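== Folding the chain ==

***
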Amino acid sequence: MTKKIDNKLISGAFFDLDKTIIAKSSMLAFSKTFRKNGLLSRRALVQAAYAQVVFQLVGANENKMERLRGIALELTKGWNHDHVKDLVNETIHDVVVPIIYEDAIELIDKHKSEGHLVFIVSSAPIEVVEPIAFHLGVTDFIATTARLDENGNYSGELDFYSYGSYKPQAVLRLAKEYDLDLEHSFAYSDSITDVPLLECVGNPIAVNPDKELYRVAKERGWEIKYFSRTVSLWDRLPVRFFQNGWVRIISGTIFTLGISVLLMPKSKKKKK
């Protein structure tokens, strides 16, 4: 547990993921990977993409989110958890890294420099949120967790749905665990469904808000931000990523080989 600083509670910064930290739906971003590896049929891929496009164009509400949840659970039922996790970890740098909002990274870095603890609170599955949280170097995260059967496959049900009113409940647990002062904390989201999350902190910020959230933010005088620039996360990987033993070994080997090639004497041409 994080200790209080000078007997004062610490401020937190809570970030939604999709369209707040990254520029599109995380699940839609990985759909081609799942299709390529035989997890999604072509019809299922089109169905998932259509649902996400409608969601992004029309906006979110409880009924639409429940429908999307039902589609996702049906599509993923029977998938092996470890296989999905491996696919995400293997392809995250090609799929998600290029679509990180630079503005979000700068905000995360700013909060860290001010001594705030940073959290991701997302309805996306934990298999997607966890590696992104690691690469961004955030303090902790909350994500949707699927229920597994005895074979380690997705059962079509959820253990925890990080959505709507469940998000502030999770934030309250984090506040208790990390001694957070929610009145002086911040929350960032793009969706009307995250109003409960935004309401539980003293500094709510709407980011790229949908039509309904924009209306609520204007009515309540909440700050509104627009993110557009994306950046490669490779340029922003936390130092602790490079402190991993295998990464040091591989990097050192590549560096040594590169130096060896540069210093290698040029072979003399044979005289005829």
In short: The chain has one domain: 12-234. The domain at 12-234 is CATH 3.40.50.1000 (Rossmann fold). The CA atoms of residues 61 and 193 lie 6 Å apart.
